[in-house]
């Protein structure tokens, strides 16, 4: 009982936003010891959660109640989201979710989420709608005559709002596997990675290319306040001048700060690697390392669309440049995993329905610029 009380106190302490290294180590230990497979198995058996899994569910339930929601299954609190992968090799980060050995199993190929790696701000543990006042007009000083009336300048403001929007995913697992008392470690690692990756990919895609049509958040490529650099009427091949124009679009807004980077897809990467800076230089716009463009970090993910249209142009790609720390991703509560043993009962499978509540917004849209008409044919 003493150990349970100690761990419960530790969980309550960690529900906020830890700042110290020791607290981060405690978080990593809790995440490492937690077993989704054990929690799901208990839900399937209609049994009470026990141990660390029960403590995590209680914490998640408390967080959900703070913004008017309830938990429907196994659940983990918001700080589980904070262990975002920067590197597989770090045990405190993604290393805890990657299997070191997987027999007779080959994972599916999938696009790599990049927004978090480029510096997006994650606001976890939110309990209400978040409104952030934003100054849109600045004061101006003018030179006046000795007795002339000074010109009046009124400041202007608007606000950025984040509201919880439900993000859901469904996957299936063998009923026999979920009922086993000792679920293989490899499956636990796979389940962790799959649940985390499904949410991360959806948030990444929303931040990049969200339509803004409810309930989908508005992504940078569809935000009309993000400046657009047009290449040509029907699209055109991206060249070094295209990248410079993107940089200029941000620079003229006094927004060259923070985590400046380029983000595009594999087709643009290949095109830039085959495009010379000028005909006789022998120097290509993107070097073989593929990590730097005109002095700024370059990242590539197929989350960035390559199927855009403009005029008669089709299969056009997007390029995004700017300060990626301006992207905010709000998260309310943690992850709720509902176990459905009925829908796939005839094939002895269990559906796992994952729910979380998130939103995406840009602090300063003009701190980014975009190309929507890049032709990538080689």
Number of strands: 13
| Approximate helicity band | 25-40%
In angstroms, what is the radius of gyration?
24 Å
The low-confidence runs, each spanning 5 or more residues with pLDDT under 50, are 1-19, 85-103
Characteristics:
single chain; 378 residues; alpha+beta; 6-stranded mixed beta sheet; 5-stranded mixed beta sheet; 8 helices; 25% strand
Summarize the structure in words:
It contains eight helices and 13 strands. It is of the alpha+beta class and 378 residues long. Strands 6, 7, 8, 9, 10 and 13 form a six-stranded mixed beta sheet that branches. The protein is globular and about 80 Å long. The protein starts with a helix and ends with a strand. 36% of the residues are buried. Mean pLDDT is 84; it is low at 1-19 and 85-103.
């Amino acid at each position: 009982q003493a150990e349970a009380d100690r761990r419960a106190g530790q969980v309550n302490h960690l529900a906020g936003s830890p700042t110290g290294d020791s607290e981060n180590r405690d978080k990593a230990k809790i995440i490492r010891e937690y077993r989704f497979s054990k929690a799901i198995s208990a839900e399937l058996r209609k049994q009470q959660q026990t141990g660390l899994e029960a403590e995590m569910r209680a914490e998640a339930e408390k967080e959900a109640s703070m913004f008017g929601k309830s938990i429907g299954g196994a659940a983990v609190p918001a700080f589980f989201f904070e262990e975002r992968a920067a590197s597989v090799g770090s045990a405190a980060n993604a290393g805890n979710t990657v299997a070191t050995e997987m027999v007779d199993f080959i994972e599916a190929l999938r696009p790599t989420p990049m927004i978090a790696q480029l510096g997006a701000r994650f606001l976890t543990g939110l309990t209400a709608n978040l409104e952030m006042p934003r100054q849109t007009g600045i004061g101006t000083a003018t030179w006046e005559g000795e007795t002339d009336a000074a010109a009046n300048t009124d400041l202007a403001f608007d606000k950025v709002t984040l509201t919880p929007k439900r993000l859901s995913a469904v996957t299936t697992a063998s009923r026999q596997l979920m009922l086993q008392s000792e679920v293989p470690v490899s499956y636990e690692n796979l389940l962790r990675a799959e649940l985390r990756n499904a949410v991360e990919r959806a948030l990444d895609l929303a931040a990049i290319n969200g339509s803004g049509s409810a309930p989908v958040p508005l992504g940078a490529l569809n935000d009309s306040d993000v400046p657009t650099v047009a290449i040509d009427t029907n699209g055109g091949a991206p060249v070094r001048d295209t990248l410079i124009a993107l940089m200029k679009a941000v620079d003229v807004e006094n927004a060259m700060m923070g985590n400046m980077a380029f983000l595009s897809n594999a087709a643009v990467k290949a095109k830039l690697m085959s495009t010379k800076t000028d005909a006789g230089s022998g120097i290509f716009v993107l070097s073989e390392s593929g990590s730097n463009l005109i002095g700024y970090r370059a990242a590539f993910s197929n989350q960035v669309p390559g199927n855009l249209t403009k005029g008669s142009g089709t299969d056009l790609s997007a390029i995004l440049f700017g300060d990626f720390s301006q992207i905010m991703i709000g998260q309310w509560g943690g992850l709720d995993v509902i176990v459905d043993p009925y829908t796939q009962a005839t094939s002895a499978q269990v559906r796992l329905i994952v729910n979380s509540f998130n939103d995406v917004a840009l602090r300063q849209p003009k701190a980014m610029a975009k190309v929507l008409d890049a032709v990538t044919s080689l």
